[in-house]
Amino acid sequence: MASGGDLSLTILGFLNERPMHGYELKARLAALTGHLRPVSDGALYPAISRLESKGLVERHEEAGAAAARRQVLTLTGKGREELLRRLRDPSELDVSDQTRFFALLTFLSALPDPADRSRVLRRRLAFLEAPASFFYEGGRPVRIKDEPDPYRRGMLEIARASSRAEKEWLRQRIEELPEP
Fold first, then answer.
1. pTM of the predicted model, to two decimals?
2. For range 9-21, the mean pLDDT
3. How do the domains of the chain map onto residue ranges?
4. Domain 4-89 has CATH 3.30.460.30
5. What's the rounded Cα separation, in Å, for the pair 20 and 75?
6. Which of 173, 84, 90, 159 is nearest to 128 (CA)?
7. Rounded to whole angstroms, what are the CA distances from 169 to 122, 172, 178?
8. Most exposed among 26, 47, 102, 148, judged by the fewest C-beta atoms under 10 Å?
9. Dist CA 105 CA 45 (whole Å)
10. What is the number of other CB atoms lying within 10 angstroms of the CB of residue 119?
């Protein structure tokens, strides 16, 4: 995870599923983000400490598989409330940034009210439907056919295809959920 915001969200989200020790949590984060965004101990453990200091996560000791004891992390009631608040009312960056939105999407099922899930998906869809581009000229997005550089044109084509697929998926999910 790139930033503290989506890292803390994923920690809260995974601990909402079940208590786990730091190594297991790190493995779950790595499985979610893959090799593209590895989570270092230098990012993970300070993030856990910040969540602990806010009363969102608790740590207790349990017997390990071998003789060593291990620290197990548990989400507190306050931590669950914070997770649900962040899922229900994500920041603009959580909606507009693809990596942060995917972190949000990973745990969206934790929201008990389907109308809240629909509202979040509708916000993402509205963002994707707004005119945008990687490149602008004269204050307007560059059209694919007007981009002379084949690599930039490729980037625009890939982004358009990805956006089209995501919008289609969002519309299908929204259709299945109740109106907010």
1. 0.84
2. 95
3. 4-89, 119-176
4. no
5. 10
6. 159
7. 12, 5, 16
8. 148
9. 23
10. 18
